[in-house]
Amino acid sequence: MEPLEPPPAPKPTTTAPGFAAALADNAAACSGARQEAERLAQRASSRAPEIMAAAVDVAGNERVSALFSAQRSAVETGVRSARTNAHALNARIHQLNATITGFDDALKECGDLVAWTQAIASDVRDCSNAIAELKVRGGT
């Protein structure tokens, strides 16, 4: 019987620009960690009958068997709860990512509006200067 190995540490996020990209990287890392946790939970659940059978053989006691069964039920309940929480967290991360992406897009649009108003102001100045030059040359 080989020992269970701990899940790998989350990978560092990339240096992609923007908070939305960092959030997406974090969501991907959380998803990978969740999948690894589920894989380990399934592996532990599949090994539980072996461990329980070995313990019962060694102990030869019905009470020990009942305790192990209760512990297995508690572990399985904890695994189900952890999976539910992981799915809920994943959904919240996706919602947050969508909100931040929308905010990022809105900021880009504001930047485009500022650039457009600066271009219009420059055109108005050019027209005003041209009219002033015509007045000076025309004498009116």
Task: List the helices and strands in order.
Answer: HH
Q: In terms of structural class, how would the helical and strand content be classed?
A: mainly alpha
Which term fits the overall shape? rod-shaped
How many strand units?
A: 0
- What is the average of the pLDDT values? 79
Low-confidence spans: none
Major sheet attributes: none
Q: Strand portion, in percent? A: under 5%
Report the radius of gyration as a whole number of Å: 32 Å
> Total number of helical segments?
2
Helical proportion, percent range: over 70%
The separation of the N and C termini measures 101 Å
Topology:
Layout: H1 19-59, H2 62-138
Overview of this structure, please?
With 140 residues, the chain is mostly helical. It has a domain at 19-105. Helix content is 84%, strand content 0%. Helix 1 runs antiparallel to helix 2. The relative contact order is 0.09. The mean pLDDT is 79.
In short:
Helix content is 84%, strand content 0%.
Structural key phrases:
rod-shaped; single chain; 140 residues; mainly alpha; Biogenesis of lysosome-related organelles complex 1 subunit 1
